[in-house]
Automatic annotation (TrEMBL):
Designated name of the protein: Uncharacterized protein
Alphabetized UniProt keyword annotations: Membrane, Transmembrane, Transmembrane helix
Disordered: annotated segments: 293-352
Biased composition (Pro residues): 298-335
Source organism of this protein record: Luteococcus japonicus LSP_Lj1
Residues annotated as transmembrane: 26-59, 71-95, 133-155, 161-184, 217-234, 254-276
Amino acid sequence: MLPPGRLGIGGLFRATWEVCKRKGLLLLGISLVSALVAVVIMFFPAVIVIMLGVFSLIAGYEDRKYDPRPVLTMVIPAILVCATLMGAVAVWLWARFTSMMVAVVDQTVRGFDATWNSAENQTRDATGRAGTLIMIGAALGFGLGAMLSVLFVTITAGDNWLSDTAVLVTVGLFLTALLIGLYLQIRLVYSLQALALEGHRGLGVLRRSLALTSRRFWGTLGLLIVGGALPYLLNTTVNFTNEAIRDNQDLAPLAVVTGLLGLALNFLVAVWTTIWQTLMYVDVRRFEQGGPGVAVPQPMPVQPQWPTPGYPEPRAPMAPEPPVAPPPPVAPPAPGILDDSSPWARRDGEGF
């Protein structure tokens, strides 16, 4: 399916579109199942956090003077627990379902007819190998929850509790964490492919992605920007149209249609992004050790080392046996006659 040389931007677009045509519905189905599982798992924690947030604001301003105790005792713990759970669930869904989408793209590129079962079989143990990453996701979720908690307190308290310096420091730390997260997102862009296609586990997944993006940071960033530009423009256009329709009372019934269109577009963007990034990985992997147009040599199979349990001990080579004369030719049976060795031959007591 892929040309022998480097793909380039045009080749990536053509290959992504070809995979979309062949396996777009399958990839969209996997993305929908992943989103449904996420909604079922995270619905009640999100509702609890929202309800506690509203209640704490009402209780905090009950006497016309801000009291941070309801926020600190109810909302902040709920945000931390919910964010930790969301981080763990996000990585689990990433290893369980998004790795299946990567497997579908990989099988399609290699010329196989990918199915749900084939993708699931290829990534069956991906969740188990991602145990360390799930714990890292929970820790990152807790850190994100801590930052959101500080921002929540900053916004709700304002001048009533925090000084201007504390607010500026909080915003600065948040922006710094955002930039660091953006950098890591680019360097770790191939982590999912390393987990699903190369069999790495734990921190080895992250190290593999760092190795693949080493000395390719700006090229990787450029390809990610180019690949995400079209979905971003479409998504922005739909969202802008939806906001314009909501502001117009005469077009209010169309808001439901544009809202559903925006939701469907989000799933399509997820499918497009997964295909694009997987093809970037395939292109880098094919030419990882060579220059442009030089394919990566396939590794030779590992020979067993002696002595190895289960293998016979090596012996001195024996003299070659003399050639055996071929048997004399046998005349074929007469037409219409089946010999006893034929599966269709009549046995004694059978037939008529």
